[in-house]
Amino acid sequence: MARAATTSDAFNAIAEPQRREILVLLRDGERPVTELAQDLGMTQPQASKHLRVLREVGLVRVRGVGKQRLYGLDARGLRPLHEWLGGFERFWGESFDRLDEYLQELKQARRESA
Amino acid sequence: MARAATTSDAFNAIAEPQRREILVLLRDGERPVTELAQDLGMTQPQASKHLRVLREVGLVRVRGVGKQRLYGLDARGLRPLHEWLGGFERFWGESFDRLDEYLQELKQARRESA
DNA sequence: CAATCATATGCCCATATAGGCATGTGTCAA
DNA sequence: TTGACACATGCCTATATGGGCATATGATTG
Fold first, then answer.
1. Helix, strand, coil % over all residues of chain B, rounded to 5
2. Nearest CB to A81 within list B16, B27, B85
3. Count of domains forming chain B
4. Which domain holds residue B106?
5. Higher pLDDT pick, B98 / B71
6. What confidence category does residue B102 fall into, taking pLDDT thresholds of 50, 70 and 90?
7. Which range, of A41-50, A72-81, B23-32, B87-96, averages the lowest pLDDT?
8. A92 and B74 in contact by Cβ < 8 A?
9. Measuring CA to CA, which of A50, B20, B60, B79 is 20 to 30 A from B45?
10. What CATH number did the domain enclosing A27 receive?
11. H/E element holding B100?
């Protein structure tokens, strides 16, 4: 079996860096496809495809305005990520700043196994 | 070009549901491969492969103890995720509770039309 | 209707995947 | 040394991908 589809959920959708950048741009408001493509230095078809994925997982929504299609962020789609990550909150302080301690543990482990 | 490797970063690594479950299990402490495999209903080779990916992106670390290899969570690997997601924090309240607001609006609209 | 601008799709390709299964490697005990 | 146990790797296959490019679809204007 292959990898799960990028459209299967938000986790898979945001695994692609360019799609994350699109979401970041959209934090500041709605944007048409071409602008996004330019800002991110990608072709228009590429942008459209990425936006399709984001739309399918509910991370962005579209709105037709004249010839244009304005894409906007729908942050509710990030909720699963937020919740999953929240389960690890108790490690934030503990693990991020304690590189030293971790190194100590490593040394000790090595001593024990020696 | 194909999709980025699962080992390219934490984002890609946790796109796979089973790998996320492994990390959840490891929150409670170190575990040997076979136990993880059993708990998650997967074969031992599958577990080993997932663990390899997680190790390559720095989400878990291993420690040999006798015949066993104890895998432990390294939450520092989640930092990029945490930080990226943090950029959307201002949307949490706004968008997540939208449903409530929407329901309020509905009620009010109904009252007004009654 | 025709022309034009803004997007979306379709097609081709190379690549990395996850699963299934067999087998290699490493460690300990007798 | 030989087993036995715990784990890692190798190989195979089907599949979905992202990029490049051409082209179809939609909406607007003259």
1. 60, 10, 25
2. B85
3. 1
4. 10-113
5. B71
6. very low
7. B87-96
8. no
9. B79
10. 1.10.10.10
11. helix B98-113
Q: What DSSP element (H or E) covers B70? A: strand B68-73
Strand D neighbours with CB under 7 A?
A 1-3, 5-7, 15-16, 18, 42-43, 45-46, 49-50, 53, 64, 66-67; B 1-4, 32-35, 44-45, 47-49, 51-52, 62, 67-69
- Average pLDDT (A44-62) is 97
Quote the longest CA-to-CA distance of chain A: 72
B33 lies in some domain: yes
DSSP at A33: H
Distances from the Cα of A84 to the Cα of A56, A60, A79, B81, B85, angstroms: 20, 20, 8, 11, 11
Average pLDDT over residues A24-50: 97
Please report which confidence band the pLDDT of residue B12 belongs to, taking 50, 70 and 90 as the band edges: very high
Give the type of residue at A61: R
For residue B5, being part of any structural domain is answered with: no
* Residue A61 in tokens: 């929504």
Does some domain include residue A16?
yes
Residue A31 lies in a domain: yes
